[in-house]
Amino acid sequence: MAVYVVMEPPKRADAVLVRDGFHLFGFLTPPIWLLWHRLWIEAIVAFAVAMVLAAVGEVADLGWAGTLLSLLVSVYVGIEGAALRIAALRRRGWREWGVVEADSFDDAEARYLFDAERLESTGRPEPSPPAAPQSVPFRRSGPALGLFSYPGKA
Q1: C-alpha distances in angstroms, 50 versus 22, 44, 56, 77, 137?
Q2: For residues 76 and 53, what is the distance between their CA atoms, to the nearest angstrom?
Q3: Which of 80, 81, 71 shows the shortest CA–CA distance to 51?
Q4: E strand or H helix at 2, and its extent?
Q5: pLDDT single digits (tens) 98-128
Q6: Is residue 135 predicted with pLDDT exceeding 90?
Q7: Residue 64: how many CA atoms within 13 Å on its side-chain side?
Q8: Whole-structure pTM over 0.85, yes or no?
Q9: Which three-class secondary structure state does DSSP give residue 60?
Q10: Residue 50: closest CA among 69, 25, 77
Q11: Is the C-alpha dihedral spanning 87, 127, 101, 122 positive or negative?
Q12: For residues 90 and 12, what is the distance between their CA atoms, to the nearest angstrom?
């Protein structure tokens, strides 16, 4: 079973379901996969980092190890591609509705629509903004691993 994160737009429109897990196409062609999902800056950074790592491998005369360095970008995008998509949607004002677990994308979409309709009909309250952090009184403490001096000592 796969896990899908449901992201809802700020205005009433269609939600996006992002499958959490390894993305094979993101691993095979990271910049193209990132561009496909409209992650422009991430695609430029992934391409640049892959080229820099390959160049460092060539300059250091690492042979195949240099080529494998650029593979790190592919591994990162393959593993963290969903998190990059979710972060980009959050930056655009989307909010996380919740998580749906299903065997396929169609099942996940059906479960989301059923739950959203059920919650809407029962009068689901709007999410409240996060509470302001409570102020914690400042407390002086001793040195951390002997790196800092004690309070009041020179």
Answers
A1: 19, 10, 10, 11, 47
A2: 14
A3: 71
A4: strand 2-8
A5: 899 999 999 988 998 888 778 777 765 555 5
A6: no
A7: 0
A8: no
A9: coil
A10: 69
A11: negative
A12: 16
Q: Report which residue type is found at 61.
A: D
Q: Which amino acid is at 58?
A: E
Distance of CA 56 to the CA centre of its chain: 28
Contact 84, 34 (CB under 8 A): yes
Q: How many CA atoms lie within 13 A of 14 on its CB side?
A: 4
pLDDT at 34 exceeding the cut of 90: yes
Q: Which residue reads 């809802």 in tokens?
A: 8
CA 42 to chain centroid? 11
* 3-class DSSP state of 122: coil
In this prediction, residues 87-93 reach a mean pLDDT of 91
Q: Which positions ≥6 away from 63 have C-beta within 8 Å?
A: 57
Q: What is the pLDDT of residues 7-32, one digit of tens each?
A: 998 887 888 999 998 999 999 999 99
Q: 104 is written with which tokens?
A: 């396929």
Report the chain's mean pLDDT, rounded to a whole number.
82
Closest CA to 12 of 108, 113, 129, 94: 94
